[in-house]
Write a structure and sequence with these properties.
- Helices cover 42% and strands 20% of the residues.
- The protein has eight helices and seven strands.
- The two termini are 30 Å apart.
- By secondary structure, the chain is an alpha/beta fold.
């Protein structure tokens, strides 16, 4: 079996130094977040670059994000989509999204982003109730793992045919492949089952990448 090359610290530094085109606004946000007590919640910069690349390929104008944290992924997308594009951002934390707002404003993209501070399921269902089924081009899900199946089903309704759905943390630090976590950690059981479901889901094209903590790319058929 051909296995992905392990990313040693030396090789990862090489990746960052030679494989990354990072806007200065993103670098500033990433460096500030590095000192935050919850810094591990931020996506890796190469993941942000992939999101931007996918958005450019798919011509994304309308984007949904569930799980904002300090705003790296939403900032990356705001810098990528057209000036008349729109981002619906869902989170629960005023503390972390206050940092996000400051960086959105500094980058001059805050007008593209509408932030809702309440459970994402409520915001997404509200979008459907307002007739926005098939309205969005792309959705990124990086929030409470226990709610991923519900987010996914809502995403399938909100994203247009041919649109993209991306899910983060699908490896959960390797715990999904560790039988010792069977039944002990609800989030692990949920993601393990969701991984199995997505592999067989005929409603989407499917690709699970060993990027960051495991990143699933889906194209709605």
């Amino acid at each position: 079996m051909n296995q992905t090359l392990p990313l040693t610290d030396k090789l990862y530094r090489y990746l960052i130094n030679t494989g990354l085109r990072e806007h200065p606004a993103l670098t500033a946000l990433r460096e500030e977040t590095a000192s935050n007590r919850m810094a591990k919640m931020q996506i890796a910069p190469e993941q942000g670059q992939l999101l931007m690349f996918l958005a450019q390929l798919a011509g994304v104008r309308r984007y949904v994000e569930v799980g904002v944290f300090t705003g790296y992924s939403s900032l990356a997308m705001a810098l990528t989509i057209p000036d008349d594009g729109e981002i619906l951002a869902c989170d629960m934390s005023l503390e972390f999204t206050t940092i996000a707002r400051r960086h959105w404003q500094a980058a001059g993209v805050e007008q593209k982003i509408t932030l809702h501070l309440r459970p994402g399921v409520i915001t997404l269902q509200e979008q459907l109730d307002q007739g926005r089924a098939g309205y969005y081009d792309m959705m990124f899900i990086d929030a409470d793992k226990r709610v991923y199946p519900e987010y996914y089903e809502l995403a399938l309704q909100l994203v247009r045919p041919g649109g993209l759905i991306v899910l983060d943390n699908m490896f959960l630090g390797g715990r999904v492949a560790d039988a010792t976590f069977e039944g002990e950690t609800p989030g692990v059981d949920v993601i393990r089952q969701l991984n199995a479901t997505l592999q067989q889901d005929s409603r989407v094209d499917y690709c699970l990448l060993p990027l960051g903590d495991g990143m699933t790319l889906l194209r709605k058929r």
